[in-house]
Amino acid sequence: MSAAQAVAVLLDPKANHEPVAAYEALHAHGPIVQVADGYYFVSGYEAVAGVLRDPSTEAYDARRLDQQWSDWRENRAVEIFADSMLRTNPPQHTRMRRLAAGVFTARRVAALRDVITAQVEEALDALPPEGDLVTHLTYPLPIGVITALLGVPAEDRGRFRRLAEALTAVLEVRWTAEDRRLAHEAALELEDYFTHLLAQRRAEPREDLVTALAAAHDADGGQLTAAELMANLTLLLVAGFETTTNLLSNGIVLMLEHGNKIDDPAAYVEEVLRFDSPVQLTERYTSKKTLVGGVEVPADAELVLLLGAANRDPARFTDPGVFDPGRTGNAPLSFGAGAHYCLGAPLARLEAQITLPALARRFPGLTPQGKPVRRPRMNLRGWSSVPVTLEGSV
Ligand code: HEM
């Protein structure tokens, strides 16, 4: 495959959910390829890491959206991401990030270990003898954990899978008019949901993140605007489970393929993150002429950073196409790097490090029952169903 053919595969929503061969072709070409005027794909590990850590590069923010798409504010899903920390730049990003990091501390996450362990055991107890692990485990578990942390009532959990699937379509490299419409409707529904929840928490404050973020908005000289409050609540909820679901399902499918045995949970999860990255790409813009992977890129260029490709760069990883949980010096870019490094990385890792070994231990005879089905997405990469039987385990 040539580099041009690889780019065509990655831009085709019908083909880009199987990107590995295209990544290999890009690696043979070099760390960066120009796709169009001012538009590049970056696949080399050092080049991607360098762009993410370069403070002169910018996230895809409202200013860039204005330049590309005059009526983007008519799509509420696009607008919500643009108002959140994910798609803002300093000084807004620094302010929001500091605030969220203040409530989302390492200590608060570590304290969740017992809650997560209890939720995993409960989910494993309830598994049917035959069924789909996406429905019965990899969705309900991360939804249960993030809603507990945010303070979203347990009885509302059922709606979030559909809403998150629809909303996150706008994070793909290409989307259809139908994706756009469903994403917009999902954003409106979530907004309505959080408007009611915020009113309840203001009336009766609790020890949860919804109350803490509302207080940050309401305080004198409020640190968050109303739009930012809504956007970051939505981001935390959706980013908090949609990606973790994919990490769990990718890990389970690899476990089924490689024998249900996990010696070192932390190393195992790092290798799942590298080999089958739950987030395959993000974007940055250059604010000035910049050298990327040895190529001079002009100011205001759009760089699609292929995290999943960087994690399979043969210049960085020996035998990148081999799943090897014993790999040393493994440092995948799956959670990004630099100023926007994933705020939830410790939580996602903890959930996977508890869930995957618990599943392997509890059901040593876990066997696939038919083929797992890939989600029809490139960026948020996971499985829509992983049918298994527990037979022989209990
Ligand atoms: C940012 C991946 C789980 C919240 C990011 C970024 C990546 C990522 C790649 C950086 C995007 C960029 O630089 O443009 C993942 C993966 C996860 C995961 C692979 C699971 C396996 C979570 C969880 C939460 C979360 C559990 C919250 C509870 C966030 C937030 C940001 C972010 C708030 C934006 C940070 C900022 O812009 O400063 N995530 N994430 N993520 N993630 Fe995650």
UniProtKB/TrEMBL annotation:
This is Cytochrome P450. InterPro entries: Cyt_P450, Cyt_P450_B, Cyt_P450_CS, Cyt_P450_sf. Gene3D superfamilies: Cytochrome P450. Keywords: Heme, Iron, Metal-binding, Monooxygenase, Oxidoreductase. SUPFAM superfamilies: Cytochrome P450. It comes from the Bacteria. PROSITE patterns: CYTOCHROME_P450. It holds the Pfam family p450. Coiled coil: none annotated. Belongs to the cytochrome P450 family.
